[in-house]
Write a sequence for this structure.
């Protein structure tokens, strides 16, 4: 299994992760009209944590939550424009690029992902510098996300 992400998108998600540090960033990579581009999402985890620390015990330094309405607008736009949701991404500040149990829980409903063909990219940072990146894909037979090869593609300048 291979996930191809174009260099311009990797550069953008690295920038996003570094700008958000020491908090987690999150977003998606979209394919359309021969181009790949990034759409950043706002991490609302701190807001949720402040409002209800029992339900949301973690701050944005170790967790992320996307506003569902913001995500739905993005998914609707992707569908209406004949695009493909290629990957979700998020960062792990000062932690390794692993797909945690919390990550799995966030991406699955009743044990199945809402977007089973979409890759999951995790960017690790150490002291604000990129220290790793890994890609994971859903395996329906094992009902787990497993690491897959991440290949950097080259494409012309595509802007979102």
């Amino acid at each position: 299994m291979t996930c191809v992400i174009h260099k311009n998108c990797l550069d953008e998600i690295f920038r996003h992760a570094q700008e958000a540090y020491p908090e987690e960033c999150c977003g998606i990579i979209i394919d359309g009209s021969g181009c790949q581009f990034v759409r950043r999402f706002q991490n609302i985890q701190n807001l949720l944590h402040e409002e209800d620390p029992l339900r949301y015990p973690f701050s944005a330094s170790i967790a992320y939550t996307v506003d569902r309405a913001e995500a739905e607008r993005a998914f609707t736009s992707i569908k209406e424009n004949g695009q493909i949701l290629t990957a979700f991404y998020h960062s792990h500040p000062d932690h390794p690029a692993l797909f945690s149990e919390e990550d799995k829980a966030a991406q699955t409903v009743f044990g199945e992902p809402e977007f089973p063909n979409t890759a999951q990219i995790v960017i690790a940072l150490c002291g604000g510098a990129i220290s790793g990146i890994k890609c994971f894909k859903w395996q329906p037979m094992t009902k787990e996300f497993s690491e897959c090869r991440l290949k950097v593609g080259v494409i012309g300048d595509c802007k979102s």
